[in-house]
Amino acid sequence: DVKVTQSSRYLVKRTGEKVFLECVQDMDHENMFWYRQDPGLGLRLIYFSYDVKMKEKGDIPEGYSVSREKKERFSLILESASTNQTSMYLCASNFGGSGRGEQFFGPGTRLTVL
Amino acid sequence: AQTVTQSQPEMSVQEAETVTLSCTYDTSESDYYLFWYKQPPSRQMILVIRQEAYKQQNATENRFSVNFQKAAKSFSLKISDSQLGDAAMYFCAYRRGSGGYQKVTFGTGTKLQVIP
């Protein structure tokens, strides 16, 4: 089975802190994604990566950055956390190429910024 | 830009009954995929069913089936013989078909309650 893991299920941080969210997948997927999930807004794409060291902005990249130094690991960084970044963060991955596109999701990290 | 609309924020169904969740999308592409994902409470999101736009036949997966109306840009999910384990958030999603790293656009979700 494909496994996508995230470093924390719950995280509480203070305003202004630098926050790292880690995601690891074990299926050698080329693509990895970070989403933010908020009630009534669905999933919104923050960033995605299609290869090591490659990244593309999604719909809401402001206030976030990402890092992909190894194929299996994709990190989301909040440079200076703010209360409006309190949310559920979902990582996902899938194969590149002209595949059927299914994404495999991690369990999510519920981040609270105080 | 592609958009996906789920107009039913919440729905409920009696156990063993059938329920249909609605989804419409907007695209100018001819080659694309549509998905329904399920997110149970406090659990990981998983794929329920997938439809390739070039296929006329509606996809089915056990108790789950879709009604894909390409011209109307409608993609509804039917759950038959509803079970308590079907209670979850359901997201409709769209992905353009060509290319390696295509963005997926999600709807806002429908919360399904199953009443015993």
List its salient traits:
heterodimer, A: 114 residues, mainly beta, Immunoglobulin-like, globular, B: mainly beta, 4-stranded antiparallel β-sheet
Task: Explain this structure.
- The complex is a heterodimer of chains A (114) and B (116).
- Chain A has strands at 4-6, 10-13, 19-25, 31-38, 42-51, 54-57, 64-70, 73-78, 87-94, 104-105, 109-113.
- Chain A has 114 residues and is mostly beta strands.
- Chain A starts with a strand and ends with a strand.
- In chain B, the strands form 3 sheets. In chain B, strands 2, 5, 6, 10, 11 and 12 form a 6-stranded mixed sheet that branches. Chain B has a 4-stranded antiparallel sheet with strand order 3-9-8-7, with no helix packed on it.
- In chain B, β8 (64-69) and β9 form a beta hairpin.
- The radius of gyration of chain B is 14 Å and the shape is globular.
- The mean pLDDT of chain B is 93.
- Chains A and B meet through β4 and β5 of A and β5 and β6 of B.
The CATH topology label of chain B is Immunoglobulin-like
Helix and strand sequence of chain B: EEEEEEEEEEEE
Please give the alpha-carbon distance between the first and last residues of chain B. Answer: 41 Å
Strand content of chain B: over 45%
User: Mean pLDDT of chain B, rounded to whole units?
Assistant: 93
Number of self-contained structural domains of chain A: 1
Highest CATH level, the class of chain B: Mainly Beta
Mean pLDDT, all residues of chain A: 93
Radius of gyration of chain B: 14 Å
Structural class of chain B: mainly beta
Largest interface comes to: A-B, 27 and 26 residues
Assign the CATH class of chain A: Mainly Beta
Please report the number of helical segments of chain B: 0
Structural class designation of chain A? mainly beta
Percent helix of chain B: under 10%
SSE arrangement of chain A, N to C: EEEEEEEEEEE
